[in-house]
Amino acid sequence: MESKFIIAFKEVLREQFIEQNTVEIEGLGQFEVKHREQHQKKFESGKVVLMPPADVVEFKSNIKNSYED
Amino acid sequence: MKIDKQKLVELLVDKTSMGEEEVKSQLDQLIERIIDAAKRGKALEIREFGLFYFDEAGELKFDPSDELSTEISFKYAGMKPVELKPERDSSFPEAEEDDDLEDFDFLSDITADDSEVYAGTEEQQDVFTEDVKPAEKKKETKPLSLKSPGLRAKKRSGSLIWVFAAIIGVAILVLAYLYFIGSLATSTQDASPAVTQVDPESLNRMDEEDQTQMTDENVSGRQAETEQDNVTNGTAGAEIEIESSVEPPEDIIPTDPAEPAEETDVSDIDQPLYGLRGSVTQEANNGYSIVLHSFTEEENARSASGNLTRQGYRAIVSSRTVADQTMWRVSVGQFETLQDAQRAIINLPEPYNTQNFIHRIQIN
Questions:
Q1: Does residue A60 belong to the interface with chain B, where contact is any CB pair within 8 Å?
Q2: Residue A32 is part of a domain; what is its CATH number?
Q3: Do B58 and A67 touch (CB under 8 A)?
Q4: Which residue has the higher pLDDT, B217 or B271?
Q5: B5-76 domain in CATH 3.40.50.10090?
Q6: How confident is the model at residue B115, as a pLDDT?
Q7: Of B31, B117, B244, B252, which sits most exposed with the smallest number of CB within 10 A?
């Protein structure tokens, strides 16, 4: 596999994510960019933190692996 | 919009100028490798992109890298978690209490023992429970001694606390007054340091060594921009590698040892490869830059870039397609890592230090 291809693969996907596009790669899975609202996070120590909003990439795949063998 | 495999192949063909069949076969190879490695209990990492692995439930997962996450979430760059409620404090002021109780031998012994026990227990004990317990001990121990001296002793300790607090209060006031007088005196003596602190020019003076390169760049700013166009993307860029948990890294995909970047004439002497100021170096185009402007017209971007170059910054113009529109971004600096770029933001003058975002350098 050529490194030129890997670099291009990363760049293309990054550009699509930034444009909020969903990328579905047959045989692998689907990448989707979701918006996460700001929210409060409570720690066991009693600390409460307000987390900023963010755009995050989510990956879903139908590929399963059985650990039986 | 949804990009399927066919569309992805087309985009990759455009990007790599490889044939469609070749791109398809490369993509299939990549998918095969990801799944293969994952099935063997390994995680396959595509550097600066993310990690593919099977979780405990046997589902294929992807963890984006920090670089990718930051780039995707660039709109919210610089937003940090805000602490609304602090952690419960586990330390309590035992020293003062001990001082007050030193008059009474039996009490000081008990409290000293107790404090050791508390220190050894869980860190996150409630302040209230810790504060109350020594007091309770006091009450418990009182019956051991004679009643009347005990009561008197308690009153005495109460009054001692007040006297002690009053003395500390007065001392603080006196110190504050002296400090105030002292600062007034120094500020009237020489007001010049205060002026230089506020001077925005000093904010710009980050890398003094870089400044020496400024003059060269004034002339060749535009030239440098056009030179960049010839450089192929990410020659020294990221490769792919497999991080194996157990086995030796036999799976490292051989990467073309970064085909030597087309020799560019970097006329700069002594200039660090990465930095905020100086002139743009082609070799540093695999890093990150701080975007200050985004224009729809290239001309405007070039003129803004010229201004920044005249101010001594490494200014870069690049275009990106956002929502089907070509945007011309003007960014400053070349940084090896995201963290370096984030650190450099504080050295930018207003309003750039608050209105910016970081992107990966990508010369079109």
A1: no
A2: 4.10.520.10
A3: yes
A4: B271
A5: no
A6: 40
A7: B117
Q: Which residue range is the domain that position A19 belongs to?
A: 3-60
Closest partner CB to B72 (pick from A17, A41, A45): A17
Looking up tokens 């192949």, which residue turns up? B9
CA distance B280 to B283: 9
Arithmetic mean of pLDDT over chain B? 68
Domain B210-237+262-360 sits in CATH at 3.30.70.1070
Q: Which amino acid makes up residue A31?
A: F
Residues of A within 8 A of B85 (CB-CB) are 46-48
Show residues of chain A in contact with B325, CB under 8 Å: none
pTM of the model: 0.44
B296 touches chain A (CB under 8 A): no
What's the distance, Cα to Cα, between the start and end of chain B in Å? 23
Interacting residues of B84 by C-beta distance below 8 A, sequence separation 6+: A40, A48, A49, A50
By Cβ distance, the residue of A1, A12, A50 closest to B81 is A50
Write the burial class of residue B187 (CB in 10 Å: 0-12 exposed, 13-18 middle, 19+ buried): exposed
Higher-confidence position of A60 and B17 = A60
**Residue A24 banded pLDDT, cuts 50, 70, 90:** very high
Task: Name the residue among A18, A21, A64 with its Cβ closest to that of B2.
Answer: A21
Nearest of B216, B180, B235, B181 to residue B314 by alpha carbon: B216
Segment B252-280, tens digit of pLDDT: 343 333 333 333 344 445 788 888 888 88
Nearest-angstrom CA–CA distance, B161 and B100:
7
